[in-house]
Design a protein that fits this description.
This protein folds into two domains: 83 residues; 68 residues, OB fold (Dihydrolipoamide Acetyltransferase, E2P). The chain contains no helices and 16 strands. It has an eight-stranded antiparallel β-barrel with strand order 1-2-3-4-5-6-7-8. It has a four-stranded antiparallel β-sheet with strand order 9-16-14-11, with no helix packed on it. Strands 13-12-10-15 form a four-stranded antiparallel β-sheet, with no helix packed on it. The N and C termini lie far apart (39 Å).
Length: 171
């Protein structure tokens, strides 16, 4: 069994994963266990089947993010930052817990930029949508992880992007 500290959208979770026969896993999140059938789908995708709770079943995309150990998880069109063994936290200043330094919004998977919702110099709030990309016939709204100012917009509507490409930089 492997145990991880996982920060999901700023919230720390303790996750234990135990491999079982025939491709099944027992996944325990903060003490609550579920059986999961997992299959890799493409470069960044995982197909998850929860037989005990079928409405959770689906495909999650886990694309590289700006820093080592970070991923962007996309589930049903919602993108959240995920850090494995997230012992390192961005330091904060005294103003509302803003992370110091630049934050990069990257494409979680290959796709096409549908809309860019910000411009260089714009002020954004945490969780504000900044870019919409289309991938696998679904639109994915990428949001700012922090409040800040847009330093750079590196994509435009209609542009094809590969997974991990920086789209917007926030400072």
């Amino acid at each position: 069994m492997s145990t991880f500290e996982v920060d999901v959208n700023g919230r720390r979770r303790i996750v234990a994963v135990e491999r079982l026969p025939q491709g099944w896993f027992k996944v325990t999140v903060d003490g609550a266990s579920n059986m999961v059938d997992v299959e890799r789908v493409g470069q960044f995708g995982l197909s998850l089947l929860f037989p005990e709770d079928g409405h959770l079943s689906g495909t999650v995309q886990l694309a590289p993010a700006a820093s080592a150990g970070e991923r962007l998880a996309v589930w049903e069109g919602i993108t959240v930052p995920v850090t494995l063994n997230g012992r390192r936290h961005a330091s904060t200043d005294g103003a509302g817990g803003r992370a110091k330094g630049e934050q990069k919004i990257v494409a979680p998977m290959p796709g096409r930029v549908v809309r860019v919702l910000v411009s260089e110099g714009d002020e954004v709030e945490a969780r504000q949508p900044v870019v919409v990309i289309e991938a696998m016939k679904m639109e994915n709204e990428l949001r700012s992880p922090v409040a800040g100012r847009i330093r750079e917009v590196a994509a435009s509507a209609g542009t094809s992007v590969e997974a991990g490409r920086v789209l917007v930089v926030i400072e």
